Amino acid sequence: VQLVESEGGSVQAGGSLRLSCVASGFTFSSVCMGWFRQAPGKEREGVATIDSDGTTNYAESVSGRFTVSRDNVMSILYLQMKSLKAEDTATYYCAASPASCHRSDFSYWGQGTQVTVSS
């Protein structure tokens, strides 16, 4: 199993950024995929998940600003981030769960990519 996130970046507050995650080594279309993030000194938190049937779920802090989507043909997971805030600064991780979309079921993780939002 391999999950490879795209390079993140640095943007100003109010800007936009799209992350992608290329998956391989498993049946991408059959699993729940998710984005998580970890800011310095904080615990890793869930950002968004998208189940195999397309059902999405978002953290309250990003709802209405972030959109998670998936391309089951190309095995790519996306996270479109808009109206970015300084508090969105973190390392973002792509993850896969062969079971449910509950956080504890995510067992495969990417290496992480840094997103920095300057105010």
Summarize the entry for a quick read:
The chain is mainly β and 119 residues long.
Layout of SSEs?
Blueprint: E1 2-5, E2 9-12, E3 17-24, E4 32-38, E5 45-50, E6 56-58, E7 66-71, E8 76-81, E9 90-97, E10 108-109, E11 113-118
Parallel strand pairs: 2-11
Antiparallel strand pairs: 1-3, 3-8, 4-5, 4-9, 5-6, 7-8, 9-10, 9-11
Describe this structure in words.
The chain is mostly beta strands and 119 residues long. Helix content is 0%, strand content 50%. Strands 2, 4, 5, 6, 9, 10 and 11 form a seven-stranded mixed beta sheet that branches. A four-stranded antiparallel beta sheet has the order 1-3-8-7, with no helix packed on it. A hairpin with a 6-residue loop joins strand 4 and strand 5. It is globular, with a radius of gyration of 13 Å. The protein starts with a strand and ends with a strand.
Characteristic terms for this protein:
seven-stranded mixed sheet, globular, 11 strands, mainly beta, four-stranded antiparallel sheet
